[in-house]
């Protein structure tokens, strides 16, 4: 992997990390910061710093940064705000040029905090120390298993999707994010004392392993024109999803109070500026993660003709409504596909698209494998550009294997069921499933499907909105 | 329970039910229809009808309806379309006046199906037999444990919410619906050969145990003016939520094809008519179930002043944006509450509303019970009409009990955690939680919270939209 010549490169790929405030106490938030690096097998050296410990999680600890005998590539500080300036000073002394400040209570912490912020910012600038945060929970890089988080990180599914956030709001969701959507890197800019959205966007633009960028912002700290000029060129090259909160005057005021940044007060102007780029604006958090997942896991649709497979006519009507409201067209399936589907029809003629798989399954319970083989003709039809399918309930896994399912979350029946779904949906075109209620069994299936790059959305509307945004992005950016 | 003098009463509270097409074969869809009645301990007599069986699931079976020695209150028919007319004839012969036809393939099944439909409809009308369906999966009545479904029904949480559907789209979601939102009755009108939305609405209006009505329609089969006149008066008395699909011309055409009904082609006119009632229109399926749950589990807000408890400033900004866009006001908390909250503040001042519980918890890990006791002051503040709170991740259950959680889905730590959440949110005012990612542990917590009438939504926006709709309903209907 070739390293980028951008100062953020060492934040994501440090050769060594010192964790100031590391602890053996499992009932402190800080415990997890270092433990994750160990559990995930971080590909670099770890230096715990804590004056009261000889070793932490089995690794030799140092009383201060100044006691570390080797060069420290990245310092992560998680000590109280009042002690943080000392850490910045230590960084200067040991010539550590990169600092992550997890601690909060600076520019968002009243006049006292603001004063501390100013002193730290001036000192770091003078000494040439680049600072991420304060008030950040990052970085994460799935390539080298670097992950700064308060939560125990369980499973990582790597991919090309890189996130930038301006708040730790994603941290409670981190396991869900890391296990489902194919993440490359995550950066929380926090209070943006130094590193801001322009730095981050420029880095992701030049990062070869980042294929899709998803950015949450509340304020622009860099020059507004600089940001939009950059966004214009980056978003033509890589799909770039923007969630901008602080849209209403009250929201913008709230944004100012929690990170101490000046928010963008006029949402309409912001929206107008986004329109002049190829970036895709998410209307809310659900849409942000939906789009991130869709762009990460799927190719861009070559056209807007959608095939829809449902479990009931009622779902089909709602999907068709969503198509019309989001600029996709129900595909007109060919005669060949019609012939294939006739083999699995109920005893009467049914419409081809949306295709009611529910009623057909009732009449094909004796051979559901054949049913799925014929169903697979739908997304493969020459008149189809993209496809969505409602995930059938577990009950069909029973019929498929002709045996009652055990109570285990995932068993052989589920495995066979998964294969059937994949045989329909892995068809070389952007294809998504939806499932609006998820019990624990369904969730395991969803995880397995998404691990195969088949995204599952919570409604046909959300799947359609995501595919529609991808289709429009392809057109606007000239990539399709 | 006093019985209503409406013909639908016997569909929901039959003294006896005959299941025509009942089977012992667990790998047929029909198996579940009767099995659910047994497993749920249906409060009436069950007569399986199947010429090839002596007994089904341990109950004596009859070769035909004509062989049943006693009066049959309700007949449920699940035999192929071609044989259904014979069942209607049998009903006439044994003077069974109420028939549910589960089978599809009639008016939605091409010219042949339409012909069958017409013959059955004429015959049933002539003989005075009331017909639900065809193409229905219902009724469900949680009061007497009557539940017609293809899915194995697991848990039922009773309540005052009654659903009417015009499609079986809810059947794959039936366990989720029945376990979370406090359901009273469910009726799927299917192809509406006889029983239509006017009958259903009139019945629910007069049904004492139904407190909230949620209705999905694609077409109006009864007289349009009659429906809206009825809706006007019913929606003033009981919150009535309407999901109308087939909104676009293509959607409306799709609606016509799957139940053979004439759809309402102009959505704007429909919307205008809804505006003249107190009914609440849901924009999509997610909103339909969100609203159903909110109205079912919560009292109407007395005002629009909302308290917001978040885990991060970023979530707070988004919640405030949603408030502004949906007509709720962030409540201004009193000095008393401010004093209480100061006890759990981080070492700096933070805004009161949205209240960042995340940063506070980090500084109160040593006594989270105290933390929750003080937090409880927020929704109880005199300036608060309703409240929402982001559900803290499981990690806090660990800190609460000062022990690492076991891997069991729900254990003592979760129980204590649940008590803490409930102590904040059970405050006599409409209060909801949100949690945007649900793993299986979280889902069990959600189920336990909803069993205590504390609804959990998937985002602050969805919680706010639901409370906002309830507030506006209270104002418009004059109930608040």
Structural commentary:
The structure is a homodimer of 480-residue chains. With 480 residues, the first copy, chain A, is α/β, with parallel strands linked by helices. Chain A has two domains: 9-295, NAD(P)-binding Rossmann-like Domain (Rossmann fold); 299-477, 3-Layer(aba) Sandwich (Rossmann fold), CATH 3.40.50. Chain A has helices at residues 9-12, 31-39, 81-94, 110-127, 174-180, 197-206, 224-237, 249-259, 267-275, 285-297, 313-326, 335-342, 357-362, 368-375, 377-380, 395-401, 412-425, 440-451, 460-477, and strands at 16-20, 45-49, 55-56, 59-60, 74-77, 98-101, 130-132, 140-141, 146-147, 158-165, 183-188, 212-217, 240-244, 280-282, 305-310, 329-330, 355-356, 386-390, 431-434, 456-457. In chain A, the strands form four sheets. Chain A has a seven-stranded mixed β-sheet with strand order 9-8-11-10-12-13-14, sandwiched between helices. In chain A, strands 15, 16, 17, 18, 19 and 20 form a six-stranded parallel β-sheet that branches. Chain A has a five-stranded parallel β-sheet with strand order 2-1-5-6-7, with helices on both faces. In chain A, helix 7 (224-237) links the parallel strand 12 and strand 13 (240-244). In chain A, helix 6 packs parallel to helix 7, helix 11 packs parallel to helix 19 and helix 14 (368-375) packs parallel to helix 17 (412-425). The longest helix of chain A has 18 residues, at 110-127. Chain A is elongated, with a radius of gyration of 25 Å. The model of chain A has no long low-confidence stretch (mean pLDDT 92). The interface between A and B is large, with 89 and 89 residues.
């Amino acid at each position: 992997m070739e390293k980028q010549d951008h100062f953020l490169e060492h934040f994501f790929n440090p050769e060594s990390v010192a964790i100031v405030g590391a602890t053996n106490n499992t009932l402190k938030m800080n415990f997890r910061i270092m433990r994750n690096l160990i559990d995930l097998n971080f590909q670099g050296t770890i230096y715990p710093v804590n004056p009261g410990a000889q070793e932490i999680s089995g690794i030799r600890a140092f009383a201060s940064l100044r006691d570390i005998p080797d060069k420290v590539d990245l310092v992560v500080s998680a000590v109280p705000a009042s002690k943080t300036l000392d850490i910045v000073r230590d960084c200067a002394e040991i010539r550590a040029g990169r600092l992550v400040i997890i601690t909060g209570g600076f520019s968002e912490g009243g006049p006292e905090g603001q004063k501390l912020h100013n002193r730290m910012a001036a000192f770091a600038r003078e000494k040439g120390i680049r600072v991420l945060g304060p008030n950040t929970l990052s970085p994460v890089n799935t390539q080298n298993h670097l992950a700064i988080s308060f939560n125990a990180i369980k499973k990582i599914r790597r991919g090309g999707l890189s996130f930038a956030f301006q708040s730790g709001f994603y941290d409670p969701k981190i396991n869900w994010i890391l296990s489902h959507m194919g993440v490359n890197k995550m950066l929380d800019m926090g209070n943006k004392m130094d590193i801001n959205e322009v730095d981050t966007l420029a880095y992701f633009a030049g990062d070869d392993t980042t294929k899709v960028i998803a950015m949450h912002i509340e304020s622009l700290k860099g020059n507004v024109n600089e940001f939009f000029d950059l966004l214009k060129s980056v978003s033509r090259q890589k799909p770039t999803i923007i969630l901008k909160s602080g849209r209403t005057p009250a929201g913008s005021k709230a944004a100012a109070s929690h990170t101490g940044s000046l928010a963008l007060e006029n949402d309409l102007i912001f929206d107008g500026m986004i329109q002049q780029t190829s970036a895709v604006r998410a209307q809310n958090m659900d849409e942000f993660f939906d789009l991130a997942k869709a762009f990460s896991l799927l190719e861009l649709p070559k056209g807007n003709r959608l095939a829809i497979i449902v479990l009931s006519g009622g779902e089909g009507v709602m999907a068709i409504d969503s198509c019309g409201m989001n600029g996709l067209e129900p595909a007109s399936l060919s005669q060949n596909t019609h012939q294939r589907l006739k083999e699995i029809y109920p005893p009467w003629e049914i419409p081809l698209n949306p295709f009611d798989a529910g009623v057909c399954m009732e009449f094909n319970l004796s051979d559901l494998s054949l049913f799925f083989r014929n169903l697979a003709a739908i997304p493969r039809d020459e008149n189809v550009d993209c496809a969505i399918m409602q995930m059938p309930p577990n009950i069909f896994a029973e019929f498929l294997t002709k045996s009652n399912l055990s109570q285990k979350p995932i068993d052989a029946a589920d495995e066979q069921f998964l294969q059937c779904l994949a045989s329909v949906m892995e068809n070389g075109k952007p294809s998504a499933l939806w499932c609006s209620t998820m019990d624990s069994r369904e969730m395991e299936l969803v995880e397995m499907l998404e691990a195969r790059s088949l995204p599952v959305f919570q409604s046909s509307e959300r799947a359609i909105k995501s595919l529609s945004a991808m289709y429009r992005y392809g057109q606007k950016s000239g990539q399709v």
